[in-house]
Amino acid sequence: MKINLCYLTSFLVCALQIKFTLSKSGEPRTLAFIVDVTYSMIVDLEHIKVAFEAILKEISFELDQNFGEYLFMPFHDPAIGFPLITENKTEFLEIIKMHYGTALHQNKDCEEMALPALYAALHFVTPYSHIVIYTDDNSKRTDLLEGILNITAIKRPKVSFVITPGCNFGANDVEYEKIANRTGGQIYEITKKNVSSVTYALHEHWKSEWFELKSIDFSYGGSHEIKFEVQDLSKILVSFTGKNAKVKITDPNGKQEAGRSIMNMQNVQEIILENPINGIWKLEISALTHHRLRVMAIESDKHSSHYFAFFAAYCIVIGLILCFCLYNYKFFSECFVKCWQSRPSLPQWLKCR
């Protein structure tokens, strides 16, 4: 009975520790699409639908691993729609199709309601979610920016913008820039025909293991040399956007690395490096206008296995200590009673002092 109790105690200690680790990220993450559904976005919606169909067909299991729910938030001018939330990724695709087919609206002017829609959606998404905003114009209600940044500081989502040609295409939208920068997201200024390619490639960003190595925004065009250190990483994702974006990657040995390109467009360059060697890596980047660099990484299995070994040893030691105490509880209780009974009275203690 005592042995079984010891095993149970050890198991509970491990279970509690695992539960504590999982609770850091809280609820299952949300994948949210916030979409401008004005008539000018009909081509964009078609490409979003095509891309998500491909994602469901080819990497459905990855979606299940990374997200527990899906949110679609439509907006137009002058209103935003209700958030449509489902735990079923196939239903999410049907929601996208529904808006492509029947829910388009005529816009009144060049500015849309992207920021009000984002502000509303942030109240529904879970922490550490991924949010993608599709629009072809700047947003009204810029006064909501501070509130948006306050919520993102708490929920820590990653917010990216996919912006296609509209009234203000190519303009430096300060609000979008600040939100993407604060959340580690990216801004993709692309043509409408590339929306499906960008949406599909974004699934690489959705893995929960990514952490940020570098995040830099440049207000003006120019060339820069950026260095970062690699130590026991399995993957690196370099994301660089800006007008006529160019990237050159050099490893610690001075060898130029091409990597695996997941986005190769005039204004977007995204490259994944597999099993990068340890050392100082160098990026040479350039763009004609304001541009943004994001470098993310995933730790190697070696690093993860070291943590797991330490965690397992920790659980075993705590379990053994508890087992020892349970086996010898009579001895410890008797010692405690004897010590308590033989303690000096207060007057004796004062006299000794």
UniProtKB/TrEMBL annotation:
Q: Which GO terms describe its cellular component?
A: extracellular region; protein-containing complex
TM region(s), chain numbering: 307-329
First and last residue of the signal peptide:
1-23
Q: Which domain of life is it from?
A: Eukaryota
State where it is primarily located.
secreted
Which ranges carry the Hemicentin/VWA7 galactose-binding domain?
225-297
Name listed for the protein in its UniProt record: CSON006597 protein
Native source species: Culicoides sonorensis
Gene symbol? CSON006597
